[in-house]
Amino acid sequence: MIWLGFIVLALATLGFLLWPLLRAQRQAADRKAHDIAVYRAQLAEIDEELARGSLTEAEAGAAKLEIQRRLLRADATAEGGGATASQRSVVTGAIAILLLVPMLGGGIYLAIGRPEATQVDVAALQQRAAREAKLHAETERMIAQLRERLAAEPDRADGWLLLGRSLLTLDRADEAVPALDRFIALRPQEADGYALRAEAQTLAADGSVTPQAQRDFRTVLERDPQHPGARYYLGLARLQEGDTRGAYDDWHALAADSPADAPWLDVVQARLRELAPRLGIALAQAVPEPKPAIDTAPASASGPSREQMDAAQQMSAEDRNAMVRSMVERLAERLQENPDDADGWLRLARAREVLGEAEAAREALRRAVGVAPQRIDVRLALAFNLAGTAVTSRDPLPAEAAVEFGKVLDQAPDHPQALWFVGRSAYESGNTAAAATAWNRLLAQLPPESAEAKELTQRLAGLPR
Hints:
Serine Threonine Protein Phosphatase 5, Tetratricopeptide repeat, 3 domains
C-alpha cells in the first residue's frame, strides 16, 4: 500500500511540474493563430480604403508589403510544421519523464534503499523525548537550586564553576561567562576557570575564537602547557585568522602529544586530514602517531600452545588445575631469576587472581610497581586490586587503594578513572571540596551531552555545601 502512495505522489508532483510547459506550448500556438488572423484582417481593410480612395496606390502597396512580410513570418512558424514538431516533442518528453522518473527512482531505492526504515518506532521516539525532557527539567531545577545557594554563599568557588559548566551543558554560553568570571575572581590560579570561560566566549560568538578567549587560552597554557582544550582552540584561532599552516602545526603537535585513547584525538586527526590537501601534504603523512594509550593493558603473556590446549581439554578439572598451577609456579620461578621483568609480574598477578589467590596477586603487583614505578598501567592494576569489591559496589574505597589512585594522578593528572576514584574517596571521607575538585576536572574531559557528564553534574550538584 505504501508503494502505491509513493507512485501516486510522484505522478502528481510530475504532473504539476509539466503542466505549465504543456500549457505554455498551447498558449504559444493560440497566439500565433491570432496574429495571422489580425494580419489578414488588416490586408482586407487596406483593400477597402484603397477602393474608397482613402489611400493612394503607392501608400496601399507599401502598407500591404509590410503586413504581408509579417504574415509570411507568422505563417511560416504556425503552418510550416515547426510548431507541430515542437508540440510533439514536448508531449513525448513529458510522457517519458512521467514514466522514467518513478521507474528509475523506484529501481534505485530497491537497490540501495532501506524499506524497513519506513517503520518508525514512534513509542521509542516518544520515550527518548520524554527522557531528554525530564533530564533537561532536572538540570534546570538543579541550576535554580545552585543559584539560590550561591546567592546565600557567594564565595563558594566550586559552586560558580559548577554553575558555569551546567549552563554550558544547556548551550547557554552567555549566562555561563559571568558565573565563570566569579570563579576566576575567587581562584585566579586555577586553569580550569580560564579554559571554561574561553570556551563559553567562543560558543557565544558562534564558534569564533575571540581575542578575549585567546587571552584566556594563553593563560591556561601558562599554567598547564599541555592543556588539550587550550591548544586545540588556539589552533582554531589561527585557522580563522587565515594562518592554515600555523593551525596545522599546532594540531599536529597536539595529536603527537596525545595518548591513543584521548577523547579529543579523533577531532584533531580529522582536522589534520582536512587541512593537509590545502598545504600539499599527503594524507598518509598528515596524522602523526599518538602516544600509547594511558589505559593500555600490559602485554599479555604468550598463551599455552595448541598442543597444551588440546591436552587440557582431555583432562579432568583437578588435572587442569594442577597444570595451571604448575605453569604459574614455573613463571614464579623464572621471575625469581629475572625479578626486573615488570610484565612478567603482571602476568603472574593475573594468573594468581584467576586461581583466587588475591593476596599473592597483590604481592606480584607490588613487585611490578617496584620494578616500574613510572608505568601508569602497573600502578593502576595495583590500585584496582586494592580496591577489590568497592569498584563495583557501594563499599567504601580502601584507603590504600585511594593512595594508589592518587599516585596515578601524580603521573597523569587527567586520568579519568583515577579522577573518579580520588573524588569518590574524598567524598566518602567527608572532604567535599576535594571531591568537587577531582570530579570537576573529570567533567571537563567528558562530552557535555554524554550521559556520564550529566550524571556527574548531578552528583556535583548534590554535594553538601
